[in-house]
Amino acid sequence: MIRLGILGDPVDESLSPRIHACAFMHRSREGVYERHQTTIANVGFTLKRLQQSHLGLNVTAPLKTEVLDYCHGVSALAAQLGAANTLVAKKEGWWAENTDATGLLNVLGGAQSLRGQTVAVLGAGGAARAVVWALEGAGCEEIRIHCRSQRSFSILNNRSLTRKASLQWRPWGDVKDPVDLVINSTPLGRHEPLPIELRSPRIIDLNYRPHMTTELCRQSRSIGLIAQDGRALLLEQALLAQQLWFGDLPVGLRDAMTQPLMK
Q1: pTM to 2 decimals?
Q2: pLDDT of residue 196
């Protein structure tokens, strides 16, 4: 029996168990994918307990930074971002990887897909690190970080995630200048509208809700904007996690894992 799971707080609305259950069926493998409600205070204990029984784990908020302290090995990308969302069980301990950043680059369209464009990113927390890395890879010319604290921006900027793109701070709520794309990396906008005027033809909200669209996406579509929630990123990072855990991506796996996201 292969055991996989997700750590986070909360994890009750995660769609990961559904999509990875479909992956087990497509692979004709017997396995389970379990939710593990885990706080920052007990993440070390939980990881030690699961290391012998699980092939791999996904990690969601607020644990993506904390898990690094309990891993035997960390990929170059996870170390650069200071965050991991996928763990692989090795003989020596957990190996940490970040598939959020590479997954988001796929969602954006791949390398140089946003060449020369200007993008506004809402938030400067852990999720914003993966966003900035992906936008650099997509060829953005200017990345504007909208957050309440310049200190938060400085912490993000000090990670040196951009080489060519210009990374700039903007006050939270000051999104009046037109941009090509807005990406929401905060938990806000999931259940409540954002009191921000979005002047962009396209919105990507990294949040998602299991049975309905996020309020930010609904709000954006109501005024004619193209809006996409976090399901696309969920699928991309899940496929990358499958490759890390099993070493392959069988033909048809993407279609199989997409099915629960369409219900």
Answers
A1: 0.94
A2: 80
For residue 159, what pLDDT is reported? 93
Question: What is the predicted pLDDT for the residue at 198?
Answer: 80
Answer yes or no: do 179 and 64 share one domain: no
Same domain as 65, residue 126? no
Which of 48, 64, 91, 263 is an active site residue?
64
Given a cut of 50, the residues of the chain with pLDDT beneath it are none
Domain identity same for 119 and 180: yes
90 flagged as catalytic: no
Same-domain status, 111 and 142? yes
184 and 132 both lie in a single domain? yes
Q: Tell me, what's the pLDDT at 263?
A: 63
Domain count for the chain, please give it.
Answer: 2
Do residue 173 and residue 55 come from a single domain? no
pLDDT number for residue 83: 94
Q: DSSP of the chain, one letter per residue? A: -EEEEEEESS-TT-SHHHHHHHHHHHHT--EEEEEEE--GGGHHHHHHHHTTT-SEEEE-TT-TTGGGGG-SEE-HHHHHHT--SEEEE-SSSEEEE--HHHHHHHHHTSTTTTTT-EEEEE--SHHHHHHHHHHHHTT-SEEEEEES-HHHHHHHHTT---SSSEEEEEETT---S--SEEEE-SSTTSSS--SS----SEEEES---SSS--HHHHHHHTTT-EEE-THHHHHHHHHHHHHHHHS---TTHHHHHHGGGG-
Domain that holds residue 247: 2-98+233-262
Q: Are 202 and 240 part of one and the same domain?
A: no
> For 227-238, how does the pLDDT look when each residue is reduced to its tens digit (9 = 90+)?
999 999 999 999
Question: pLDDT tens digit string along 171-185?
Answer: 988 777 899 999 999
The CATH number of the domain where 174 resides is what?
A: 3.40.50.720
